[in-house]
User: Fold this.
Amino acid sequence: MTSLPAMVIAIEKRGDQYQVIVQISTKYRGSFNTLAFGEIKPYTGALKDGRLDLVYYRDPGLNEGDPFPLWTLQ
Assistant:
């Protein structure tokens, strides 16, 4: 696995969900399915143009500006 530099750029609680937006700092051309997350894995997500839109059902314990634990399986 290769570490990808990424940072939380926004987090918002909506009802019982937490929506987290993460910016990947390097050009990443892989798919969402080739990403590995830290201990708290998102319920669902999407990747477009180096931006991850993630949904969690419990508080991921992140704040805007935090580094985001992310790896690629490639």
The chain has a mean pLDDT of 93. The first strand starts at residue 2 and ends at 3.
